[in-house]
TrEMBL record:
Organism: Natronobacterium gregoryi (strain ATCC 43098 / DSM 3393 / CCM 3738 / CIP 104747 / IAM 13177 / JCM 8860 / NBRC 102187 / NCIMB 2189 / SP2)
InterPro entries from the UniProt entry: TAT_signal, Thioredoxin-like_sf
Matches recorded under SUPFAM superfamilies: Thioredoxin-like
Coiled-coil residue windows: none
Protein's UniProt name: Redoxin
Annotated Gene3D superfamilies: Glutaredoxin
Domain of life of the native organism: Archaea
Length: 157
């Protein structure tokens, strides 16, 4: 099979649409892969320890060090953690075997569609990924739980 090269009117090689789309897809896939695997651990000092949970609303955040979506979401959880009525339990799952095991149990228990992070739980509700709509849903669930005393996520029972 011959390799075909396309050139422009000046005789220079140019990128074909197929090559461009393939490269774009690989780049996108590589970026998302950061949400599936990493090697470095980051300190999650803003999070509440499970034994210190005494607030009205518990938010559980499974995240991965090196996941760009998780990193974007981090400041949102730092802000939530500052609220007196919220306890954020953050579980880094790439570098902590105990957290990985807990996350696998959660994936199985809640029948999540995949093992990608970030995943957030408030009461018996959960969200996968990050968007303004997801953040709004999390805040709404926190407010509802604050008013109506939601159950603690089954993960802590």
């Amino acid at each position: 099979m011959k390799k075909q090269t396309r050139t422009d009117s000046n005789g220079r090689s140019r990128i074909t649409r197929r090559t461009y789309l393939t490269a774009s897809g690989l780049g996108l896939g590589g970026g998302l892969a950061g949400c599936l695997e990493s090697t470095d651990a980051k300190d999650s000092t803003f999070a509440t320890a499970p034994e210190d949970v005494d607030s009205a609303v518990v938010v559980i955040w499974f995240w991965g060090d090196g996941c760009p979506v998780c990193e974007e979401q981090r400041s949102f959880f730092e802000t939530l953690h500052e609220r007196d009525d919220v306890a954020v339990l953050a579980y880094e799952v790439y570098n902590d075997q105990e957290n990985q095991d807990k996350f696998r149990d959660v994936v199985e228990t809640y029948q999540l569609p995949n093992e990608a992070v970030p995943v957030v739980f408030v009461g018996d509700r959960y969200w996968i990924g990050d968007s303004e709509q997801i953040r709004s849903g999390i805040e709404s669930a926190i407010d509802q739980c604050d008013e109506n005393q939601c159950s603690t996520p089954r993960l802590l029972e």
